[in-house]
Design a protein that fits this description.
Number of domains: 2
Oligomer: single chain
Strand order of the largest sheet: 1-2-3-4-5-6-7-8
Largest sheet: 8 strands, antiparallel, barrel
Strand content: 35-45%
CATH architecture of the largest domain: Beta Barrel
CATH class of the largest domain: Mainly Beta
Distance between the termini: 65 Å
Radius of gyration: 22 Å
CATH topology of the largest domain: Lipocalin
Order of helices and strands: HEEEEEEEEH
């Protein structure tokens, strides 16, 4: 090999590869999950659920309001591939597990299960702006009434 070929193989080719890789990394879309976001939806298509989640690194924490208007705490993890596992707790006792994926639009989809795995239901929670949720925390029956009176998105 001549000196020019060696120069290309040793210095220029790796530099082109690195620049291409950096350019590709910059073009990736940012993760759909925000540092705090609000979700509303159903578990099993029947049980309404409202969540506020906060993210610090991979750790998730927050609050959930179930169909009966009962507050639960949330803790878990969000992985780099946008999959998550978080626990719904009543005091220190785990009352349910949410396992699924953050979709590109920021919604959550997955399976809710009892801690023993006796019962499980699919869930879909859509991201909503904080002002779309009634404050202070209201029973889910009021959530449905609020949705019906809220203006439709064009």
């Amino acid at each position: 090999m001549d000196a020019g070929t060696k120069l290309i193989l040793i210095f220029i080719l790796p530099m082109i590869t690195m620049v291409t890789w950096l350019w590709a990394c910059e073009r990736e879309e940012p993760p759909a999950i925000k540092s705090e976001w609000h979700l509303e939806g159903t578990v099993g298509g029947l049980h309404a659920m409202r969540l506020t989640l906060r993210r610090e690194g991979a750790a998730l924490s927050g609050e959930a309001i179930n169909t009966r208007g009962e507050a639960r705490s949330i803790d878990g993890r969000l992985e780099a591939d946008q999959t998550f596992l978080f626990h719904e707790r009543n005091g220190g006792e785990i009352t349910g597990d949410f396992e699924g994926r953050v979709l590109a639009n920021g919604d959550l989809r997955g399976i809710w299960s009892q801690p023993q795995g006796d019962r499980w239901f699919p869930f879909y929670l859509r991201a909503v702006p904080p002002e779309a949720l009634p404050r202070p925390a209201a029973p889910v029956s009021q959530m449905a009434a609020h949705r019906q009176t809220a203006p439709a998105n064009p």
